Each structure stands twice: as structure tokens, then as C-alpha cells.
Amino acid sequence: VKHMVIFKLSPSAPAAAVEDARATLESLVSIIPGLNSFHWGANSSSEGLNRGYTHAFSMDFDSPEAVLAYLPHPAHLEAAAKLLALIEGGLDGVLVVDI
């Protein structure tokens, strides 16, 4: 399962806090069973269809069950809170899809 999170990073988010949130999310690969990879980046599309979304990350999981176990995991909740504090509009600035 590919878990994709697309978000609108606040222009006032301190670079050090953004890096801390990214590193915390990346560290989940070694903490959460069934989470195999993490990829993060700023939007670089030239299509002009990002609708204000500035960044995204994806995670690859072994199974839908692994995603379900990840969601309430305390390490995920801590990482999500760090990132959410940096997102313009809070949850309104986030889009999540799993494929």
C-alpha cells in the first residue's frame, strides 16, 4: 500500500522545524512494523495544478493491515502532530490518499 500525504506548508514554518518533522517521519520506517520506505519532497511540477499544495511524502506499507496498525501508533501520532503544526490551515491543508 502506498500512503500519500500532500500538504500546504506554512510560509512561516521555520526550516529547522520542517527538517525535524521530516526526520521524525522518516524514522518511523525503523519503528513501525510493515512500513518499508519513506519519500519526501517539495512540489516541483510545472503543470500548475498543485492548488497551493507545496510538499508531499509517501510511505510504502506491506499491507492494508500495516497501515491500520500505523495510524494509532504513538510514534505516528507524535510525528503527525509535529508536521500538522507547520501546515497552513491545519487539517484543511492536508490531503491523504492510499493506493
Kindly describe this structure:
- The chain is α+β, with helices and mostly antiparallel strands.
- It contains 3 helices and 4 strands.
- The protein has helices at residues 15-27, 64-70, 74-84; strands at 2-7, 35-42, 55-61, 94-98.
- A 4-stranded antiparallel beta sheet has the order 2-3-1-4.
- Helix 1 (15-27) packs antiparallel against helix 3 (74-84).
- It starts with a strand and ends with a strand.
- The model has no long low-confidence stretch (mean pLDDT 97).
Strand content: 25-35%
Order of the strands making up the biggest sheet: 2-3-1-4
> What does the overall shape look like?
globular
- Extract low-pLDDT stretches: none
Give the H and E element order.
Answer: EHEEHHE
Rg for CA atoms: 13 Å
The biggest sheet amounts to: 4 strands, antiparallel
